[in-house]
Specification:
Elements (H helix, E strand, L loop, with lengths): L7 E4 L2 E4 H17 L16 H6 L1 H4 L3 E14 L2 E7 L4 E7 H4 L1 H8 L6 E10 L5 E12 L15 H6 L1 H7 L1 H23 L3 E2 L5 E2 L11 E4 L4 E5 L4 H9 L4 E9 L11 E10 L3 H20 L3 E4 L2 E4 L5 E4 H9 L9 H11 L9 H13 L7 E4 L11 E2 L2 E5 L1 E6 L2 E8 L4 H16 L10 H9 L4 E7 H9 L22
Parallel strand pairs: 5-7, 8-12, 16-17
Antiparallel strand pairs: 1-2, 3-4, 3-6, 4-5, 6-7, 9-11, 10-11, 12-13, 13-22, 14-15, 17-20, 18-19, 20-21, 21-22
Helix pairs in contact: 7-8, 8-10, 8-16, 9-15, 11-13, 12-13
């Protein structure tokens, strides 16, 4: 393995080959093992406190014995006494290690420990003359020997590509990265608590499917040897969750990975975490209310406020979210009123005039959506429900009774980004079959993201699905917002990366 540092490192003013330093560490390990002190023999350590516990409750713990465990991040050897900094999950704490307290042999061993080694420290809590809360060690136990070298502390691990590939090193060297992923877990837990209070059941549905539907995306295809059949990784959770609504589970949700064979950028990763939920006997207005209330709850629980800094903006989740139709958004930001455009030919004409590229298969509604993406999307900074999409881009959504060319759908936009997508779900099986036929025609015309007819889902609709509201949330984008992270890779522990050696191919 390549060390996450440069080939040379300056130590005490002398350049030493990393290979030599790595060899020294292996020699130290061999010496320990020969002396019967193999650090890898330890199977557990009696941790009683974390660093933050000791800092937060110093008055109660002062003078009492604690056991902490973590990684040595720095050492200062000063003759008969030394200091080291121990890093654990929530932070770090200083340990004072003196020969007269831990014994001469143990102190000699401690002086040979390296930055990066994992140790357990037992001792009394005290405060140094400079006021730093510390542990006066009575014993130090080597629990694991680090055979690699951590990045130099003042420069840290700065290569972003390497940080994503070696997330374990990134987590060690950058506390803010660790904080982001702790917060990610808290966000998902808060969502589950909120939905549990609302009477939703958490369920699990298949990842390997014969028909990958429910979204406009290109699936990954694999082969199932036992059945000798090609199958796909799911691109959405939708169609199976709707089957459960048909079955009488009136409120269901799932949080899980979905897979889309598409490009990567600051907002897209081929595998990502989605949450979808479905509620019988409500519509897309009910989904708006649920979304608004849930996001406020999660922000308050995790961040302690509904005012969320993101980039140079302050996002206000406490105010009622704006509501804007797609037609009105295009009228406001592009100066084009699609209510006054009579047909597809007229829509194509104005697209040509504005330089909006469209494909031969695109109809008036598709072109309206292209205008929105080009002119309006980037302006929706504060939370905005973008409503009433054209039917052409919404194959699973109920039509608006008074405007059948449009559907009861919304997308929530924050900071110019889509955060979720919701419908009054289409439960008319005859209309749904016609929508699938239109999708298959688009597929035949070259649209690789179009859906195909799912006959089992059609059978479920024919059995009967109640009026239902449904919504899909991009969990990663929500985490990006609540942690002020600029890119989706910053909130994925192990983002998709090109194989080493193929980066420039």
């Amino acid at each position: 393995m390549t060390s996450p540092v440069a080939e040379k490192q300056n130590i005490n003013g002398q350049e030493q080959d990393i290979s030599q330093l790595l060899q020294v560490r292996r020699e130290k390990l061999s010496a320990l093992q020969e002396a019967g002190k193999d650090p890898f023999r330890h199977t557990k350590y009696p941790v009683t406190h974390h660093s933050v516990d000791i800092r937060d409750h110093f008055e109660d713990l002062e003078g009492k014995v604690v056991n902490v465990a973590g990684r040595i991040m720095s050492k200062r050897i000063m003759g008969k006494a030394s200091f080291c900094n121990i890093q654990d999950l929530p932070g770090n704490i200083q340990a004072y290690v003196a020969r007269d307290f831990i014994g001469e042999e143990s102190y000699a061993d401690f002086k040979k420990y390296d930055v990066g080694d994992i140790v357990g420290v037992e001792g009394e809590v005290f405060k140094t003359k400079t006021g730093e809360i510390s542990i006066h060690a009575s014993s130090v136990t080597l629990l694991s020997k680090s055979l690699q070298i951590l990045p130099e502390k003042f420069h840290g691990l700065t290569n972003m590509d390497l940080r994503y590939r070696q997330r374990y090193t990134d987590l060690i060297m950058n506390q803010e990265v660790k904080d982001t992923f702790v917060k990610r877990s808290q966000i998902i837990s808060a969502i589950r608590r909120y939905l549990d209070k609302q009477g939703f059941l958490e369920v699990e549905t298949p990842m390997l499917v014969a028909n990958a539907g429910g979204a406009a995306a290109r699936p990954f295809v694999t082969h199932y040897n036992a059945l000798d059949e090609d199958v796909k990784l799911r691109i959405s959770l939708e169609l199976y969750l709707k089957r459960l609504i048909v079955g009488g589970l009136e409120r269901v949700f799932e949080i899980g990975r979905v897979f889309r064979n598409e490009g990567m950028d600051t907002r897209h990763n081929p595998e990502f975490t989605e949450m979808e939920l479905y509620q019988a006997y409500t519509d897309y207005y009910g989904m708006m209310d649920l979304t608004e209330n849930m996001l406020r709850y999660v922000a308050q629980e995790v961040c302690g406020t509904t005012l969320i800094p993101y980039g140079e903006e302050m996002i206000d989740l406490g105010k009622p979210f704006a509501r804007l139709t797609m037609v009105d958004a295009v009228k406001q930001y592009a100066g084009v009123d699609f209510d006054q455009i009579p047909d597809t030919a007229a829509a194509r004409k104005i697209a040509d005039e504005r330089g909006i590229h469209y494909e031969p298969r695109h109809q008036k509604g598709d072109i309206l959506n292209l205008f929105f993406e080009e002119y309006a999307e980037e302006h929706l900074i504060q939370p905005t429900f973008l409503m009433d999409h054209p039917v052409e881009v919404s194959p699973l959504t109920k039509r608006k009774p008074d405007k059948p060319d449009y559907v009861e759908r919304f997308e929530l936009f924050i900071y110019g980004r889509e955060m979720c997508n919701a419908y009054s779900e289409l439960n008319d099986p005859i209309d749904q079959r016609e929508r699938f036929r239109a999708q298959e025609a688009a597929l035949a015309a070259g649209d690789e993201e179009a859906n195909t007819t799912d006959e089992d889902f059609m059978n479920a609709l024919e059995i009967g699905m109640p009026p239902t509201g449904g919504i899909g949330y991009g969990i990663d984008r929500l985490v990006m917002l609540l942690t002020n992270s600029p890119a989706i890779r910053d909130v994925l522990l192990f983002p998709t990366m090109k194989t080493l050696g193929k980066e420039n191919q």
